């Protein structure tokens, strides 16, 4: 059980007992919030429940706080309970309990921080899902990191998680892609074939067409354009997706499933779902097109689902079938879509769609990650997909490394605009938070190696010797991890992880400066053993945090 859960239970018991005894009047249900005070002199945790109860109870908040404080049941975790003006109950954790947690963390090992709050619930996270029309550019990296880290956090909280990439291989963008590819293929064969209008610019399709021509030869040239595209399309899609997979793998991003949009059409799923909505009078025909009656569900405009001219489904049209497939066919309890900020207008449509399916809208969460600005040496860098100016994710990884990419993209909440400082990300000093955190882990590993080399067995240690303020501060920071992981999952905010990693690394630095871990002096060997256990516990906490962020935990640097 998390610390906050235990404290919530204790406060609830105290409130019930004070009301049963008559020292506090009865009241309705109130949510008990446990928070960390901003000032350390106010204890480790605090609740403002008395302030919330004051009006209903018609008593001063401090009187309520005093009554609750007296009634808090004894618990080994709690060292002191104090009422505080204007109406708080402050808790200070017991020194003996804190010392014992070093052993608890060491026993949990690499699984420290996990809990089972999501046990029995299935979650699908769909992220990146870029049209397979070329390499991933830097704008896609943030969503990839957020989605994969969020999946790690949810799994650590006991959820059954599926990571999914939605392959948009059936829409108008792919038609433009294949038309352009055909022209580039003809050009690779020496023909002066103009590009279609519209077309995909850039060198990628040139290179792809040259490779395809080298492998598939002139047999394709004898066919008409449509037949040639039928032959070129599967192999070009396979190669493009293989490149996307490989780049994502370099970013430590993997998927459990690659779901193809085209399968919705080929399987008849799209037609099936469209018929369901037509029978519910939520799809109608107008001007030769088919429309989703979104105005019946609270939106201002209806939405085209099948175009009038070419008759193909729109992006939203296939999304209808795709989300029916997620919620109704595969029966995920929750679905999380991590999209770019340019999908903002699509959110309300998806919520309306769930109404049509009679699915609770709270089961779908759409996270929009904002634009990233890049700079180097104080100068802004302008990257644009237009005019063939494209910086790929692979180039970014080569420039700063996978871990710097992941830590930096995770350091801000998705809805925040952020600036990625390339020069800082490459700095090998404490100024670079990525270097600072990973160096902290390597330093912990170095201390444990030294202990092993000197033959120091610290499996048995007297943890009551850990009394130095910096030791206690470090223990307090270590045991925050389960609550951090829980909060990150509950709020779907993986950016809490890098913040915690930095805080823990700072606590480690203060601990090193104040406490010598390995001492050669015989009288201090017991203190050395206790501190080595603390170091090992810290290594587990920092290593787990790095793992959840999808980063390496270096043993030496």
- Corresponding CATH superfamily of the largest domain: HUPs
DSSP E strands, number: 15
- Mean pLDDT metric: 93
The main sheet comes to:
5 strands, parallel
Low-pLDDT windows of residues: 385-390
- In the CATH hierarchy, what is the architecture of the largest domain at level 2? 3-Layer(aba) Sandwich
For the record, give the distance between the C-alpha atoms at the N and C termini, rounded to a whole number.
36 Å
Oligomer: single chain
Strand line-up across the major sheet: 7-6-5-11-12
Query: What is the CATH C-level name of the largest domain?
Result: Alpha Beta
Give Rg in angstroms: 29 Å
Proportion in β-strands: 5-15%
Count of discrete structural domains: 4
CATH topology of the largest domain: Rossmann fold
Helix content: 40-55%
H/I helix tally: 20
Shape: flat
Q: Structural class, from secondary structure content?
A: alpha/beta
């Amino acid at each position: 059980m998390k610390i906050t859960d235990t404290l919530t239970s204790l406060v609830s018991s105290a409130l019930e007992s004070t009301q049963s005894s008559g020292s506090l009047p009865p009241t309705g249900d109130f949510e008990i919030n446990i928070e960390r005070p901003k000032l350390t002199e106010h204890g480790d945790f605090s609740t403002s429940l008395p302030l919330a109860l004051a009006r209903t109870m018609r008593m001063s908040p401090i009187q309520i706080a005093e009554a609750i404080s007296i009634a808090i049941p004894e618990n080994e975790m709690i060292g002191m309970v104090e009422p505080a003006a204007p109406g708080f109950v402050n808790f200070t954790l017991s020194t003996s309990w804190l010392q014992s947690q070093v052993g608890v963390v060491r026993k949990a090992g690499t699984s420290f921080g996990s809990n089972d709050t999501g046990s029995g619930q299935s979650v699908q996270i769909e992220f990146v899902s870029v049209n397979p029309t070329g390499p991933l550019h830097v704008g896609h990296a943030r969503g990839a990191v957020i989605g994969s880290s969020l999946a790690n956090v949810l799994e650590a909280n006991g959820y059954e998680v599926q990571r999914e990439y939605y392959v948009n291989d059936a829409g108008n963008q792919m038609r433009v892609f294949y038309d352009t590819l055909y022209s580039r293929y003809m050009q690779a064969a020496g023909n002066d074939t103009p590009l279609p209008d519209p077309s995909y610019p850039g060198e990628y399709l040139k290179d792809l067409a040259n490779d395809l021509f080298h492998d598939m030869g002139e047999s394709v040239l004898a066919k008409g354009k449509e037949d040639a595209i039928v032959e070129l399309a599967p192999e070009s899609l396979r190669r493009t997706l293989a490149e996307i997979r490989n780049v994502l793998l370099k970013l430590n991003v993997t998927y459990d499933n690659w779901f193809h949009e085209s399968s919705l059409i080929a399987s008849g799923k799209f037609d099936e779902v469209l018929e369901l909505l037509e029978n519910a009078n939520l799809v109608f025909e107008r001007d030769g097109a088919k429309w989703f009656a979104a105005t019946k569900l609270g939106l201002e405009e209806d939405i085209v689902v099948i175009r009038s001219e070419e008759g193909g489904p729109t992006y939203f049209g296939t999304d209808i079938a795709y989300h029916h497939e997620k919620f109704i066919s595969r029966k995920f309890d929750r679905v999380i879509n991590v999209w770019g900020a340019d999908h903002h207008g699509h959110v309300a449509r998806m919520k309306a769609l769930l109404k049509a399916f009679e699915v609770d809208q709270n089961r779908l969460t759409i996270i929009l990650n904002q634009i990233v600005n890049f700079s180097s040496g104080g100068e802004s860098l302008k990257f644009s997909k237009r005019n063939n100016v494209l910086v790929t994710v692979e180039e970014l990884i080569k420039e700063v490394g996978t871990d710097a990419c992941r830590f930096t993209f995770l350091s801000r909440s998705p809805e925040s605009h952020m600036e990625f400082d390339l020069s800082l990300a490459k700095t090998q000093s404490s100024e670079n938070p990525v270097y600072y955190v990973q160096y902290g882990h390597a330093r912990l590993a170095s201390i444990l190696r030294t202990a092993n080399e000197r033959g120091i067995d610290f499996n048995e240690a007297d943890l009551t010797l850990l009394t130095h303020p910096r030791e206690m501060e470090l223990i307090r920071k270590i045991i925050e991890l389960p609550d951090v992981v829980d909060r990150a999952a509950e709020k779907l905010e993986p950016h809490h992880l890098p913040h915690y990693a930095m805080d823990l690394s700072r606590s480690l630095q203060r601990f090193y400066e104040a406490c010598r871990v390995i001492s050669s002096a015989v009288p201090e060997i017991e203190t050395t053993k206790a501190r080595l256990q603390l170091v090992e516990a810290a290594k587990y906490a920092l290593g787990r945090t790095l793992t959840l962020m999808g980063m390496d935990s270096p043993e030496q640097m």
